[in-house]
């Protein structure tokens, strides 16, 4: 059986069926049931022990089917495995570096199958009573390490990050946090310094990704901005040291690169109905399939078909606000689900009354449409006094940390214990 592969472990399991051949209870103690009186019977009744071999390997340039047939696993068994896997992972997207681990019994049947596509993505299939497999994605436990660092901008934030030996990903995360106040993409500011406290995640001692940015302080020539991570009980968010959210209440647009094709108006000539009609939202043209983002935190109140809107998603926000995303090709969220600002909730399409792929974006206050441009500048809600009381002690400590980092004229790295 798969001699070329490394056999990791051999386990012995008692065959099933022993239980059903036990003597019926006769009122004696449980241990007596296996008494020698029935011995002869039991000896013939016990099936031979099942051997399970565990074989592990890298897919390389073979298909999983080839790998498993080499282990003498019957095609029907392989088919059943790949069918059970499909909702969780499709083997058509398998890659040569993927790692498999298969536990096979002496009847060449798969008892357990593990498939790893990255250090963070592991899938496990276990044979169930119906003869099929129960498949799930494994929860990966990562070791988190807190790091504090100062980045000094010479040409760009990306270069500052690369010079310090960190990955570009952290630059993107910093830029996103301060995106509302500083445009790092357009205006690199030479000499500006940013102190950041963040998490690095490891698996088996190997760095796999960045965790969260816990605190950041940007010290510019003219202005200083701070960002502290805090969960308000529902959402993670960044706040300045006084508890004001960094984010605006609404994103400017429901997509990253959408072109406004039709503005908000009380009266406009409708190209399809050929009549003057109010346009109660803003249209953004984009190719079919472009991700549509929720412009604010909230809860989905409608997800489905609604007349001229076609496939429509409606989200309810704080303070009586509601947003509509119409003409979608796909709706990715269901009614009742919580959505975060910037989260992808649907894809651009041309369903309903529509002349081409675009999203019809509408903002309503207490049910009445308003011009979405009017809410673009409103700040999110500051923390309530109760939340502020929780926020203050966390922030005082982190503020002291980033300030002391900035006072040092070198890019000091501190490693902190994780709890
Ligand atoms: Zn429209």
Helix proportion: 10-25%
- Count of all domains: 3
CATH architecture designation of the largest domain: Roll
Distance between the termini: 45 Å
Strand content: 35-45%
CATH-derived topology of the largest domain:
Nuclear Transport Factor 2, Chain: A
Uncertain parts:
1-47
Structure description:
By secondary structure, the protein is an alpha+beta fold. The protein has three domains: 99 residues, Nuclear Transport Factor 2, Chain: A, CATH 3.10.450.350; 134 residues, Nuclear Transport Factor 2, Chain: A (Roll); 116 residues, Glucose Permease (Domain IIA), CATH 2.70.70. Helices cover 16% and strands 37% of the residues. It contains six helices and 25 strands. The strands form five sheets. Strands 12, 15, 17, 18, 19, 21, 23 and 24 form an eight-stranded antiparallel beta sheet that branches. The protein has a six-stranded antiparallel beta sheet with strand order 1-2-3-4-5-6, with helices on one face. Helix 4 packs antiparallel against helix 5. The longest helix has 23 residues. The radius of gyration is 30 Å and the shape is globular. The two termini are 45 Å apart. GO terms for molecular function: metal ion binding; metalloendopeptidase activity. It is found in: Cell envelope. Keywords: Hydrolase, Metal-binding, Metalloprotease, Protease, Signal, Zinc.
């Amino acid at each position: 059986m798969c001699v070329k592969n490394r056999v990791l472990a051999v386990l012995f399991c008692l065959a099933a069926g022993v239980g059903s051949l036990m003597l019926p209870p006769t009122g004696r103690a449980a241990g007596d049931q296996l008494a020698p009186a029935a011995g002869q019977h039991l000896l013939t009744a016990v099936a031979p022990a099942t051997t399970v071999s565990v074989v592990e390997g890298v897919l390389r340039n073979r298909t999983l089917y080839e790998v498993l047939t080499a282990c003498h696993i019957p095609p029907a068994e392989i088919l059943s495995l790949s069918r059970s896997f499909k909702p969780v992972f499709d083997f058509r997207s398998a890659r040569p570096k993927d790692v498999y681990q298969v536990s096979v019994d002496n009847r060449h049947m798969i008892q357990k199958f593990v498939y790893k596509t990255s250090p963070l993505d592991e899938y496990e299939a276990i044979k169930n009573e119906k003869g099929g497999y129960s498949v799930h994605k494994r929860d990966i436990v990562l070791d988190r390490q807190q790091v504090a660092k100062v980045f000094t901008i010479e040409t760009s934030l990306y270069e500052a990050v690369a010079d310090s030996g960190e990955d570009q990903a952290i630059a993107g995360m910093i830029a996103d946090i301060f995106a509302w106040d500083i445009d790092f993409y357009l205006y690199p500011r030479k000499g500006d310094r940013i102190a950041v406290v963040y998490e690095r995640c490891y698996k088996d001692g190997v760095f796999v990704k960045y965790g969260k940015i816990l605190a950041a302080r940007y010290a510019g020539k003219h202005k200083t901005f701070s960002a502290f991570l805090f969960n308000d009980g529902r959402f993670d968010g960044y706040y300045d040291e006084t508890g004001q959210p960094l984010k605006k209440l609404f994103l400017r647009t429901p997509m990253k690169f959408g072109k406004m094709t039709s503005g908000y108006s009380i009266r406009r000539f409708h190209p399809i109905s050929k009549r003057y009609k109010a346009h109660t939202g803003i249209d953004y043209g984009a190719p079919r399939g472009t991700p549509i983002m929720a412009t604010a935190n909230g809860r989905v109140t409608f997800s489905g078909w609604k007349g001229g809107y076609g496939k429509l998603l409606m989200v309810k926000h704080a303070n009586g606000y509601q947003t509509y995303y119409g003409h979608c090709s796909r709706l990715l969220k269901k009614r009742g689900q919580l959505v975060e600002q910037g989260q992808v909730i649907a894809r651009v399409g041309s369903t309903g009354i529509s002349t081409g792929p675009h999203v019809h974006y509408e903002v309503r206050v207490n049910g009445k449409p308003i011009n979405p441009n009017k809410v673009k500048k409103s700040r999110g809600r500051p923390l309530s006094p109760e939340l502020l009381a929780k926020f203050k002690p966390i922030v005082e400590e982190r503020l002291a940390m980033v300030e002391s980092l900035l006072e040092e004229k070198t890019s000091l790295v501190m490693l902190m214990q994780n709890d």
